[in-house]
UniProtKB/TrEMBL annotation:
Coiled coil: none annotated. Keywords: Kinase, Transferase. This is Thiamine kinase-like enzyme. InterPro entries: Aminoglycoside_PTrfase, CcrZ_PhaseVar_Mediator, Kinase-like_dom_sf. Residues 16-215 form the Aminoglycoside phosphotransferase domain.
Length: 263
């Protein structure tokens, strides 16, 4: 980012000194700068899903830099994930043909359950793969693979934890960090929200805000995708030797298997 320092910008890395994202300021104006962001960011900005995109530039190193308006605010609390606004924004994302067409034009294909299962099986380390809870989850996943029509798939975020939701000081709600965006079954997003943040007794009410009924098939699909995402996070934390968080996800994985054992 030397290019911007030379032009008089003040840059503060977000997430560490080697981050690809920066809080940037010049002449009193503040921006969020990021390196090599997907062109998908343009449509997300147009749709109001992320803070407004100001410009995109290719600098002399060949890197593409995007600048968005800097929004002062905070991430959502875990309790706030059970809200009308979260459900409404998820419904807007999943129903947007503009977002879907953009990813399709970028060459993205639907991430069907078989692909997700193969991806997670080949990514697990021998140690994780040998854990009895992980083995139970893999067995369940193999026996319960959802049958999904590719035409049913929509744009999904893939990591809807509360830290990726930004509530600005102007009371605007955004869903940020779209690096894992995919075309997939919307249950992959909804399952993680409901299993992680919403009491089961409130699932039907939350889904009514989203515009969906809680039928048996949707419950099965949510459970299946949530198990996939749990395994992904377990491996992610083991790779980084963050064993406390890894064990927390193993406990969560076991809870889903035991509490929803008849699905």
């Amino acid at each position: 980012m030397e290019h911007f320092y030379q032009l008089g910008w003040t840059l503060d890395p977000i997430g560490g000194s080697s981050s690809d994202a920066y809080k940037a300021e010049i002449n009193g104006d503040k921006f969020f700068l990021k390196r090599n962001t997907s062109p998908f960011i343009t449509m997300l900005s147009v749709e109001g899903i992320v803070p407004k995109l100001v410009w995109t530039k290719r600098i002399e190193t060949g890197e593409v830099i995007t600048a968005q308006h800097w929004k002062n605010g905070r991430t959502l609390t875990e309790e706030e994930m059970n809200s009308n606004r979260v459900a409404s924004l998820m419904q807007k994302i999943h129903s947007s043909n503009k977002l879907l067409n953009t990813l399709e034009q970028l060459g993205m294909k639907p991430m069907l359950p078989e692909l997700l299962l193969n991806k997670i099986e080949t990514s697990l380390s021998p140690k994780i793969n040998a854990h009895h809870t992980v083995r139970a989850a893999i067995k369940y996943l193999k026996n319960k693979v959802p049958q999904i029509d590719p035409d049913f798939c929509r744009v999904c975020h893939g990591d809807v934890n509360h830290k990726n939701w930004l509530l600005s000081d102007e009371d605007e709600l955004f869903l940020v960090d779209w690096e894992g965006a995919m075309i997939a079954d919307p249950a992959i997003d909804i399952g993680m929200i409901l299993y992680t943040y919403v009491d089961f007794k409130d699932w039907e009410e939350w889904l009514s805000k989203y515009g969906k009924t809680l039928d048996h098939d949707f419950r099965k699909r949510m459970k299946w995708y949530t198990l996939i995402q749990c395994l992904t996070m377990i491996q992610w934390y083991e790779d980084r030797k963050r064993f406390k968080e890894m064990n927390d996800w193993i406990i969560f994985l076991n809870d889903i298997l035991e509490k929803d054992m008849f699905i």
